[in-house]
Amino acid sequence: MSIDLGLTAEGVYENRGSKMGEFVKIAKTSEVPAGTARSFVVENEVVAVFNLNNNYYALKDQCSHMDLPLSDGMLEDDVVTCAYHGAEFDIKTGEALCAPAYEPVESYEVRVDNDDIYISID
Ligand code: FES
Questions:
Q1: According to the 3-state scheme, what is the secondary structure of the chain?
Q2: Suppose 104 and one of 29, 56, 94, 109 were both cysteines; which one would form an S-S bond, judging by CB atoms 3.0 to 4.6 Å apart?
Q3: What is the CATH number of the domain that holds 95?
Q4: How far is the CA of 72 from the centre of ligand 1 (A)?
Q5: How far, in Å, is the centroid of ligand 1 from the Cα of 8?
Q6: Residues with CB under 6 A from ligand 1
Q7: Tell me: the pLDDT tens digits for 10-32?
Q8: pTM here?
Q9: How many angstroms from the chain centroid is the CA of residue 45?
Q10: Which residues form the domain of 35?
């Protein structure tokens, strides 16, 4: 299991909090290659950012089954399959699509400005 907590080589959190209106900068597009998910910490939330054909989606990085990271899962089309027990979620909505997860995970609105990814966190 690996989670990118945005740590620098010195072990200090990078600035992941630049704001653009109500949106918060979370990552550079280059940090999330197509077909992958990466995990980032922003404003005390651990967020999985998914790149589906260079469209970006963000979910709370916590499977609703046993709270393990969805960013470790397998992305296929707009569905992420949890790496731990196989629950599936719609990356666009957070909806749980099959057992053993029954509850959705929180999804965040995403905007991309140049090569910066922003999410809306309440
Ligand atoms: S923790 Fe995701 S399916 Fe169990």
A1: CCCCCCECCCCCECCCCCEECCEEEEEEHHHCCCCCEEEEEECCEEEEEEEECCEEEEEECCCCCCCCCHHHCEEECCEEECCCCCCEEECCCCCECCCCCCCCCCEECEEEECCEEEEECC
A2: 94
A3: 2.102.10.10
A4: 11
A5: 29
A6: 63, 65-66, 68, 82, 84-87, 100-101
A7: 434 444 555 555 899 999 999 99
A8: 0.84
A9: 10
A10: 5-120
